[in-house]
Every structure is written in C-alpha cells, then in structure tokens.
C-alpha cells in the first residue's frame, strides 16, 4: 500500500475543509502568534515533530492483512 495515501485525510481536513468554509481560513490557520521565551522552543519542537511524522511515512511499511479476525 502506498504510504503517501495516509496523508490524504490530513490534507483534506487541513486545507480542503478550511478553504470550503472560508477562503482565507487556511491562511489564518497557518499563522502563529508572536512567541516569547520558552514558547519558541515549544514551537520548534512542534515543527520538528511534524517533520518527523512525515518522514516516518517514507519508511513505514504498510501491508493490507487478509487474515483479520474480530475478537
């Protein structure tokens, strides 16, 4: 299974839903308020964790199971 397909729901909600409600909503959602002190550290941790999740998908092995049983 193609790993990049896992990003489709994220992109649809993040940009598709916002742009359907208001044309400038996606731009406002991407805006971060001014940061001070430790907020800058938290911002960079947030950004690095997002980048890490996207790169993780490049190495993730996804297989469709055929022998799935409900218990």
Task: Note down, in words, how this protein is organized.
It is a single chain. By secondary structure, the protein is an all-alpha fold. The chain has three helices and no strands. The chain starts with 7 loop residues before the first helix and ends in a 12-residue tail after the last helix. The model has no long low-confidence stretch (mean pLDDT 78).
- Figure out the total of helices: 3
Rounded to an integer, what's the Rg over CA atoms? 17 Å
Spatial separation of the terminal alpha carbons: 25 Å
Strand content: under 5%
Instruction: Give the fraction of residues assigned to helices.
Output: 55-70%
User: What's the order of the H and E elements?
Assistant: HHH
What average pLDDT do the residues reach? 78
Tell me the structural class. Answer: mainly alpha
Main sheet, how many strands, which sense, barrel? none
What's the β-strand tally? 0
Q: What would the principal axes of the Cα set say about the shape? A: extended
Low confidence ranges: none
């Amino acid at each position: 299974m193609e790993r990049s397909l896992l990003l489709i729901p994220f992109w649809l909600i993040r940009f598709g839903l916002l742009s359907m409600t208001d044309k400038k909503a996606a731009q406002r959602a991407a805006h971060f308020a001014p940061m001070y002190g430790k907020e800058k550290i938290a911002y960079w941790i947030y950004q690095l964790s997002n980048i890490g999740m996207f790169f993780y998908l490049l190495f993730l092995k996804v297989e469709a199971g055929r022998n799935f049983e409900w218990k």
